[in-house]
Amino acid sequence: MSSNEDLRTGIADVQDFATDWDLNDQNWTSNPYPIVEDLRARCPIAHTERFNEGVWMPLHYEDVVGIAHDVESFSSVHHGLRRGGTTERGLFPPINTDPPEHHDLRRVLLPFFGPKRIEAWRDHLTADCRTRVQAIVERGRGDAATDYSQHIPVGAIAAILGIDPEHGDRFRMWIEGILGVGANDADTLRSAMSEVRGYMAGVMRERRQNPGEDLVSHLVSIELDGRPLDDDTIERMLVLQLVAGIDTTWSSIGAALWHLAQHPDDRRRLVAEPSLIPTAVEELLRAYAPVNVMRRVLNDTEVRGVEFRQGDHVLMTYPIACRDPEVFERADEVVIDRAQNRHIAFGVGIHRCLGSNLARLEMTIAVETWLDAIPEYSLEPGAEVTWSTGQIRGPRNIPILVG
Ligand code: HEM
């Protein structure tokens, strides 16, 4: 196996994405959209043998939405995108469950993610963003990803779980070990899973002794059908909170700040009209949608003339769907005041993102607070912007100069 560094920087050397796509290819991670445009013109659904036992990649909004709604034929019980030979990752409820159990497992989390409950975190998030942005202002330069975006969701999730935000570096390392390098390397995956589950088991023990108002205390005390949730299920649900809530939101905040660094017209308009920021956030979510998830085919079925066989996997390409020109006018442009925006960056159907209220609040506060403190900034000339590999795409370094 190659070194972790090779895996991070892109081990793939793809000649034709229609038959051999790979999300780790550097051309893809740095700018997938021209590749997608070319693919749409010549094949309805791309394929690769590099992962699982073969994975389909739909390129049309309509197909992605259709698959998301068809829970009879497409299951969410799968171990993610795995390079051939790597071990099973394990399942994270509720994202890796199907009806009927999905319903109850989602329902137990819902109270913590409704708009009112989330609103309670506004001041906490604003204070965190202000402190971080102020440090960048004082230095006159910084990294909009590593000094700012990556910390905001960690603070939010830590508050919801009632755990120490100072553990953020560990959380990010485990997420990279599960979704990033771990998709290609079994040892990394195993050790990340074992460490994060051990950590969560410790938090659960502690919360049984000292219960609070947090999500962990809730999960260790509730009953479903008269029985408490078992520890294995709770641990995996808690790991999902980190995996689903951190890289995703970090990617979206980072992509928004990266875009605004390079588009002074959009930036100045938002500075002059801050009430437009929530609309702009929706458009930035659409244009730079970060999350691809998976489905496993339960019954042989046909989509757009392509035969999917039982056991095949399908990548739910929400980011590609969000730029489908059949659905969005000027799909490849960021139209900062786009009025009609049926984007599916948060997915669609029964697994639609449970954390969307929180993610929107985090993004809106992050952009507002940044522009308030740093209305003028640009990418540092000559410095490199780097992008993540794998199922969640976002900028991981955004060196900027203030002013
Ligand atoms: C910009 C940030 C985010 C994006 C783009 C995003 C995207 C998504 C997408 C596309 C799905 C659908 C998965 C599927 O179809 O199988 C999903 C599900 C989910 N997300 Fe998010 N997410 C974000 C932030 C968050 C946050 C902050 C949390 C919570 C802390 C969260 C928790 C979840 C959970 C628990 C699910 C599974 C829901 C279910 O299976 O019923 N997400 N997310």
Query: How much is the radius of gyration in Å?
Result: 21 Å
Ranges with pLDDT <50 over ≥5 residues? 1-10
Helix/sheet category: alpha+beta
Named at the architecture level, the CATH assignment is: Orthogonal Bundle
Distance between the termini: 45 Å
Output the CATH class name.
Answer: Mainly Alpha
What compounds are bound to the protein? protoporphyrin IX containing FE
Strand content: 5-15%
- How would you name the CATH homologous superfamily? Cytochrome P450
Report the total helices. 19
- Output the strand order for the largest sheet: 1-2-10-7-3
Q: Please, how many domains?
A: 1
Number of strands: 14
Tell me about this structure.
This protein has 403 residues and is an alpha+beta fold. The protein has a single domain (4-402), classed as Orthogonal Bundle (Cytochrome p450). Helices cover 49% and strands 11% of the residues. The chain is built from 19 helices and 14 strands. It has helices spanning 4-9, 17-20, 26-30, 33-42, 61-69, 101-107, 115-119, 122-139, 144-149, 151-161, 168-180, 186-209, 215-221, 231-245, 247-262, 264-272, 277-287, 318-321, 356-373; strands at residues 45-48, 55-58, 74-75, 141-143, 223-224, 227-228, 293-297, 301-303, 306-308, 313-316, 377-379, 386-387, 395-397, 399-402. The strands form five sheets. Strands 1-2-10-7-3 form a five-stranded mixed sheet. The chain has a three-stranded antiparallel sheet with strand order 4-14-11. Helix 11 (168-180) crosses helix 12, helix 12 (186-209) packs across helix 14 (231-245) and helix 15 packs parallel to helix 19 (356-373). The protein is globular and about 55 Å long. Residues 1-10 have low confidence and may be disordered. Bound molecules: protoporphyrin IX containing FE. Protoporphyrin IX containing FE is lined by residues 68, 76, 94-95, 106, 157, 240-241, 244-245, 248-249, 252, 290-291, 293, 316, 318, 345-347, 351, 353-355, 358-359.
